[in-house]
Design goal:
heterodimer, A: mainly beta, Sulfite Oxidase, Chain A, domain 2, 6-stranded mixed beta sheet, 5-stranded mixed beta sheet, 11 strands, about 5% helix, B: alpha/beta, Elongation Factor Tu (Ef-tu), domain 3, Rossmann fold, 2 domains, 5-stranded parallel beta sheet, about 20% helix, globular, iron (chain B), OxRdtase_FAD/NAD-bd (chain B), iron-sulfur (chain B), Riboflavin_synthase-like_b-brl (chain B)
């Protein structure tokens, strides 16, 4: 236990059940982005999975949204300490997108419009754990929150859920993405409070 | 509580509050003595942890307001959020001599690196001025040659943090320009009625896109969205615009 803060009681504990360590509950939806919000016209949107052999699997908006979609309700946890419970999304499971992808690589680099990247082990994207989401709360996903479509990996800190995602690149070795290269944790499990390198 | 020697590992340590300064009616600076602080770059933040007597704890991130001359205290400036859990404690309860746990510095993107030769544009909304103040102070200490322009939006003159210091720095530094935007009430004699930041403000008081400035925008989400959109529309390279947002939408 840390040093006692004289006169600090804490006000939120009753309303914050079952949160990962160091998180607090929020009811709004904060926006964290490293730069301006890109506006991506749907007729210019595409999403590509590139294997370690260079093979590309690409979807345009029409083909992507014609894939079977799922309703997803999950808690999300941002490394800046806020958590939001029971968020609802619509998206395409990565299991669906990877169905015809042949790969022996274990790691993935997600790429976004604007140059953002983040690294994730492939096993964290499969088996019903991750989606490319394009609706939030029944509405098309706002550009500020990553629309037209973003990665959604709710079991990891939310910086891994790359906004404006446009590609996944398979890698044999784990390599740091944008925030990971700036000192954030390579994996980012909120329940183990893996915020920064060495956590 | 000593920092470990493990490189790249951020450990919690106890800091001592050595002074407090009221910046506005609702914002306060805590001057912290942090033994073994490794130093920080202007724009970085730190994590702070409070612990109640029964072990309940709360963490928050705060931008660092001070520059880093190699030693000395670390300053954070906190805006009180009325429904907040941590900020009212820091602005109203903490006293000189109290100990607070923190770890840092954190963040390597929203950082001004003085080796970058580009001119600098800083755009602050409210307490978003805090990490930008660290950059302004670093500039002053290094006598950096890159010119700085600052646009600082506040509700009223009373809400401006660091107002006297900014005035003094502008007077003493020909390469620093600060333009205030007042959204609710302006000082007597101010040439324009209160208004929100707009294209004309940024066009007149920022740098032309041709100068390829390094741009830092920090403030509430809607403010940052507006400013970043205007900058992109004016022709600034999105890759040169670094943003830090707070609050929901």
């Amino acid at each position: 236990m840390g040093i006692i803060s004289r006169g600090f009681g804490g006000r939120r504990r009753d309303s914050a059940p079952d949160l990962p360590p160091g998180q607090y509950l929020t009811h709004d939806f904060p926006v964290l982005s490293a730069g301006p919000t890109p506006r991506i016209p749907l007729d210019r949107w595409s999403f590509t999975i590139t294997t370690e052999a260079g093979q590309k699997h690409t979807w345009d908006w029409a083909r992507f949204t014609a894939l079977p979609s799922e309703e997803i309700t999950r808690d999300i946890h941002c490394v800046t300490k806020w958590s939001k419970l029971g968020t609802t999304w619509k998206g395409v499971s990565l299991d669906t997108l990877f169905a015809d992808v042949e790969t022996a690589a274990d790691y993935v680099m997600a790429h976004s419009k604007g140059g953002y990247t983040t690294n994730v082990p492939l096993e964290d994207l499969l088996d019903g754990q991750a989606w490319i989401a394009y609706e939030f709360d029944g509405e098309p996903l706002d550009p500020e929150h990553g629309g037209p479509a973003r990665l959604l990996i709710p079991h990891l800190y939310f910086w891994k859920s790359a906004k404006w995602v446009n590609g996944l690149e398979m890698m044999h070795e784990d390599e740091p993405g944008f925030w990971e290269a700036a000192g954030y944790h390579m994996y980012g499990d909120p329940w183990h409070e893996q915020r920064y390198q060495g956590d | 509580m000593a920092r470990t020697a493990l490189p790249g590992r951020l450990t919690w340590q106890a800091a001592t509050v050595t002074a407090v300064r009221q910046e506005t009616p609702s914002a306060r600076t805590l001057v912290l003595d942090v033994p073994g602080w490794p130093g920080h770059l202007p724009g970085q933040h730190l994590d702070l942890r409070l612990t109640a007597e029964d072990g309940y704890s709360a963490q928050r991130s705060y931008s660092i307001a001070s520059d880093w001359p190699g030693d000395g205290p670390v300053e954070i400036t906190i805006q009180r959020l009325e429904d907040g859990e941590v900020s009212p404690y820091l602005t109203d309860v903490v006293e000189t001599g109290d100990k607070i746990e923190l770890r840092g510095p954190i963040g390597g993107w929203f950082v001004w690196r003085p080796a970058q030769p580009a001119p600098v544009l800083l755009v602050a909304g409210g307490s978003g001025v805090v990490p930008l103040m660290s950059m302004i102070r670093e500039r002053g200490r290094l006598r950096a040659r890159q010119p700085f322009r600052v646009i600082y939006s506040v509700r009223t003159p009373e809400d401006a943090c660091f107002a006297d210091e900014l005035k003094r720095r502008v007077r003493d530094d020909a390469g620093l320009d600060v333009h205030f935007v007042y959204t609710r009430s302006a000082p007597d004699g101010w040439p324009a009625p209160p208004k929100r930041i707009d294209v004309a403000t940024i066009n007149s008081h920022g740098w032309p896109p041709d100068f390829a400035p390094d741009v830092f925008v920090c403030g509430p989400t809607s403010f940052v969205e507006t400013v970043a959109d205007i900058l992109v529309a004016l022709g600034h390279d999105p890759k040169k615009i670094r943003t830090e947002r707070f609050g929901g939408k």
